[in-house]
Protein backbone atom coordinates (compact mmCIF):
# COMPACT_ATOMS: atom_id res chain seq x y z
CA UNK A 1 0.00 0.00 0.00
CA UNK A 2 1.46 3.39 -0.98
CA UNK A 3 1.36 6.35 1.40
CA UNK A 4 -1.27 8.89 0.24
CA UNK A 5 1.00 11.87 0.95
CA UNK A 6 3.40 10.84 -1.82
CA UNK A 7 1.24 8.41 -3.74
CA UNK A 8 1.86 9.88 -7.21
CA UNK A 9 5.65 10.07 -6.81
CA UNK A 10 5.78 6.63 -5.21
CA UNK A 11 3.72 5.16 -8.03
CA UNK A 12 5.87 6.89 -10.66
CA UNK A 13 9.00 5.42 -9.03
CA UNK A 14 7.48 1.95 -8.77
CA UNK A 15 6.31 1.85 -12.38
CA UNK A 16 9.55 3.39 -13.67
CA UNK A 17 11.56 0.68 -11.92
CA UNK A 18 9.37 -2.05 -13.45
CA UNK A 19 9.70 -0.54 -16.93
CA UNK A 20 13.48 -0.08 -16.71
CA UNK A 21 14.05 -3.54 -15.24
CA UNK A 22 12.18 -5.08 -18.19
CA UNK A 23 9.47 -6.50 -15.91
CA UNK A 24 6.82 -4.69 -17.96
CA UNK A 25 7.41 -5.83 -21.53
CA UNK A 26 7.04 -3.48 -24.51
CA UNK A 27 3.45 -3.31 -25.74
CA UNK A 28 1.96 -4.46 -22.42
CA UNK A 29 -1.12 -2.31 -21.66
CA UNK A 30 -1.35 -0.61 -18.27
CA UNK A 31 -5.08 -0.18 -17.56
CA UNK A 32 -5.68 2.48 -14.93
CA UNK A 33 -8.16 0.33 -12.99
CA UNK A 34 -5.75 -2.60 -12.71
CA UNK A 35 -2.87 -0.39 -11.63
CA UNK A 36 -5.08 1.31 -9.05
CA UNK A 37 -6.13 -2.05 -7.59
CA UNK A 38 -2.58 -3.42 -7.64
CA UNK A 39 -1.10 -0.48 -5.72
CA UNK A 40 -4.11 0.45 -3.63
CA UNK A 41 -4.43 4.00 -4.96
CA UNK A 42 -7.19 6.03 -6.57
CA UNK A 43 -7.52 6.21 -10.36
CA UNK A 44 -6.70 9.95 -10.49
CA UNK A 45 -3.38 9.07 -8.81
CA UNK A 46 -2.73 6.44 -11.49
CA UNK A 47 -3.71 8.89 -14.24
CA UNK A 48 -1.27 11.49 -12.91
CA UNK A 49 1.56 8.96 -12.52
CA UNK A 50 1.04 7.61 -16.03
CA UNK A 51 0.99 11.16 -17.41
CA UNK A 52 4.36 11.80 -15.75
CA UNK A 53 5.86 8.66 -17.30
CA UNK A 54 4.40 9.55 -20.71
CA UNK A 55 6.09 12.95 -20.36
CA UNK A 56 9.38 11.17 -19.55
CA UNK A 57 8.95 9.07 -22.69
CA UNK A 58 8.91 5.77 -20.80
CA UNK A 59 5.24 5.17 -21.60
CA UNK A 60 3.16 6.01 -24.66
CA UNK A 61 -0.55 6.70 -24.74
CA UNK A 62 -2.81 6.75 -27.79
CA UNK A 63 -6.45 7.69 -28.13
CA UNK A 64 -8.84 5.05 -26.73
CA UNK A 65 -5.97 2.83 -25.63
CA UNK A 66 -4.27 2.17 -22.28
CA UNK A 67 -0.75 3.48 -21.80
CA UNK A 68 1.99 1.02 -22.74
CA UNK A 69 5.78 0.71 -22.93
CA UNK A 70 6.95 1.56 -26.45
CA UNK A 71 9.09 -1.01 -28.24
CA UNK A 72 12.56 0.21 -29.14
CA UNK A 73 13.51 -1.98 -32.11
CA UNK A 74 17.01 -2.74 -33.37
CA UNK A 75 16.35 -0.30 -36.22
CA UNK A 76 15.42 2.33 -33.62
CA UNK A 77 18.65 1.62 -31.76
CA UNK A 78 20.71 2.01 -34.94
CA UNK A 79 19.04 5.35 -35.62
CA UNK A 80 19.49 6.43 -32.01
CA UNK A 81 23.22 5.72 -32.23
CA UNK A 82 23.43 7.58 -35.53
CA UNK A 83 22.30 10.71 -33.67
CA UNK A 84 24.13 10.07 -30.39
CA UNK A 85 27.56 9.44 -31.90
CA UNK A 86 28.24 13.00 -33.12
CA UNK A 87 26.98 14.46 -29.82
CA UNK A 88 29.27 12.24 -27.76
CA UNK A 89 32.12 12.77 -30.20
CA UNK A 90 31.79 16.50 -29.57
CA UNK A 91 31.80 15.80 -25.84
CA UNK A 92 34.97 13.69 -26.13
CA UNK A 93 36.75 16.41 -28.13
CA UNK A 94 35.88 19.09 -25.58
CA UNK A 95 36.70 16.99 -22.51
CA UNK A 96 39.91 15.39 -23.80
CA UNK A 97 42.51 15.32 -21.03
CA UNK A 98 39.95 15.93 -18.27
CA UNK A 99 38.41 13.67 -15.68
CA UNK A 100 34.80 14.53 -14.81
CA UNK A 101 34.19 14.00 -11.11
CA UNK A 102 30.41 13.51 -11.41
CA UNK A 103 30.87 10.86 -14.13
CA UNK A 104 33.51 9.11 -12.02
CA UNK A 105 31.14 9.12 -9.04
CA UNK A 106 28.38 7.56 -11.17
CA UNK A 107 30.84 4.87 -12.29
CA UNK A 108 31.74 4.03 -8.71
CA UNK A 109 28.07 3.78 -7.76
CA UNK A 110 27.54 1.53 -10.78
CA UNK A 111 30.37 -0.71 -9.57
CA UNK A 112 28.85 -0.92 -6.09
CA UNK A 113 25.44 -1.81 -7.57
CA UNK A 114 26.65 -4.58 -9.89
CA UNK A 115 24.21 -7.00 -8.23
CA UNK A 116 21.36 -4.47 -7.99
CA UNK A 117 18.21 -4.51 -10.15
CA UNK A 118 18.95 -3.58 -13.76
CA UNK A 119 16.88 -0.39 -13.39
CA UNK A 120 19.44 0.96 -10.87
CA UNK A 121 22.32 0.28 -13.25
CA UNK A 122 20.37 2.03 -16.03
CA UNK A 123 20.05 5.07 -13.74
CA UNK A 124 23.78 5.18 -13.00
CA UNK A 125 24.66 4.61 -16.67
CA UNK A 126 22.49 7.58 -17.63
CA UNK A 127 23.98 9.69 -14.82
CA UNK A 128 27.49 8.95 -16.09
CA UNK A 129 26.79 9.91 -19.70
CA UNK A 130 24.73 12.95 -18.72
CA UNK A 131 27.54 14.16 -16.42
CA UNK A 132 29.97 14.01 -19.35
CA UNK A 133 27.59 15.95 -21.60
CA UNK A 134 26.93 18.58 -18.91
CA UNK A 135 30.67 19.01 -18.29
CA UNK A 136 31.05 20.40 -21.82
CA UNK A 137 29.21 23.50 -20.61
CA UNK A 138 26.83 23.86 -23.55
CA UNK A 139 23.14 24.21 -22.60
CA UNK A 140 22.14 23.43 -26.20
CA UNK A 141 24.14 20.20 -26.22
CA UNK A 142 22.45 19.20 -22.96
CA UNK A 143 19.01 19.93 -24.43
CA UNK A 144 19.76 17.92 -27.57
CA UNK A 145 21.08 15.00 -25.55
CA UNK A 146 18.12 15.04 -23.17
CA UNK A 147 15.69 14.58 -26.07
CA UNK A 148 17.25 11.14 -26.55
CA UNK A 149 17.23 10.16 -22.86
CA UNK A 150 13.97 8.18 -22.75
CA UNK A 151 14.79 6.10 -25.83
CA UNK A 152 18.31 5.54 -24.51
CA UNK A 153 16.92 4.22 -21.21
CA UNK A 154 14.45 1.96 -22.99
CA UNK A 155 17.25 0.75 -25.26
CA UNK A 156 19.31 -0.14 -22.20
CA UNK A 157 16.47 -2.36 -21.02
CA UNK A 158 16.98 -4.34 -24.20
CA UNK A 159 20.67 -4.73 -23.34
CA UNK A 160 20.15 -6.34 -19.94
CA UNK A 161 20.76 -9.84 -21.35
CA UNK A 162 23.86 -8.64 -23.23
CA UNK A 163 25.34 -7.66 -19.89
CA UNK A 164 24.62 -10.86 -17.96
CA UNK A 165 28.00 -10.16 -16.34
CA UNK A 166 27.36 -6.70 -14.90
CA UNK A 167 31.08 -6.17 -14.33
CA UNK A 168 31.47 -5.92 -18.10
CA UNK A 169 29.27 -2.81 -18.10
CA UNK A 170 31.39 -1.29 -15.35
CA UNK A 171 34.71 -2.11 -17.01
CA UNK A 172 33.58 -0.70 -20.38
CA UNK A 173 32.64 2.59 -18.78
CA UNK A 174 35.82 2.71 -16.69
CA UNK A 175 37.79 2.30 -19.92
CA UNK A 176 35.73 5.06 -21.55
CA UNK A 177 36.39 7.54 -18.73
CA UNK A 178 40.07 6.65 -18.67
CA UNK A 179 40.35 7.20 -22.43
CA UNK A 180 38.68 10.62 -22.20
CA UNK A 181 41.01 11.60 -19.34
CA UNK A 182 43.99 10.51 -21.44
CA UNK A 183 42.82 12.45 -24.49
CA UNK A 184 41.80 9.40 -26.54
CA UNK A 185 38.07 9.79 -25.97
CA UNK A 186 36.84 10.13 -29.55
CA UNK A 187 37.95 6.65 -30.61
CA UNK A 188 36.75 5.22 -27.30
CA UNK A 189 33.30 6.79 -27.71
CA UNK A 190 32.94 5.39 -31.24
CA UNK A 191 33.96 1.92 -30.07
CA UNK A 192 31.83 2.07 -26.94
CA UNK A 193 28.62 2.99 -28.71
CA UNK A 194 29.12 0.60 -31.64
CA UNK A 195 30.05 -2.28 -29.35
CA UNK A 196 27.17 -1.84 -26.92
CA UNK A 197 24.34 -1.45 -29.41
CA UNK A 198 25.74 -3.80 -32.02
CA UNK A 199 25.27 -6.72 -29.62
CA UNK A 200 21.71 -5.84 -28.63
Summary of the model, kept short:
Pfam families: FCD, GntR. With 200 residues, the protein is mostly helical.
Question: How is this structure best described in words?
Answer:
By secondary structure, the chain is mainly alpha-helical. It folds into two domains: 4-68, Winged helix-like DNA-binding domain superfamily/Winged helix DNA-binding domain (Arc Repressor Mutant, subunit A); 74-198, GntR ligand-binding domain-like (Four Helix Bundle (Hemerythrin (Met), subunit A)), CATH 1.20.120. Helices cover 68% and strands 2% of the residues. The protein has ten helices and two strands. It has helices at residues 7-20, 32-39, 43-56, 74-95, 101-112, 118-135, 139-146, 149-158, 166-181, 185-198; strands at 29-30, 67-68. A two-stranded antiparallel ribbon has the order 1-2. The longest helix has 22 residues, at 74-95. The radius of gyration is 18 Å and the shape is elongated. One of its GO terms (molecular function) is DNA-binding transcription factor activity. InterPro entries: GntR_C, HTH_CRP, TF_FadR/GntR_C, Tscrpt_reg_HTH_GntR, WH-like_DNA-bd_sf, WH_DNA-bd_sf. This is DNA-binding GntR family transcriptional regulator.
Protein topology:
Elements: H1 7-20, E1 29-30, H2 32-39, H3 43-56, E2 67-68, H4 74-95, H5 101-112, H6 118-135, H7 139-146, H8 149-158, H9 166-181, H10 185-198
Antiparallel strand pairs: 1-2
GO molecular function: DNA binding; DNA-binding transcription factor activity
Protein name: DNA-binding GntR family transcriptional regulator
Pfam families: FCD, GntR
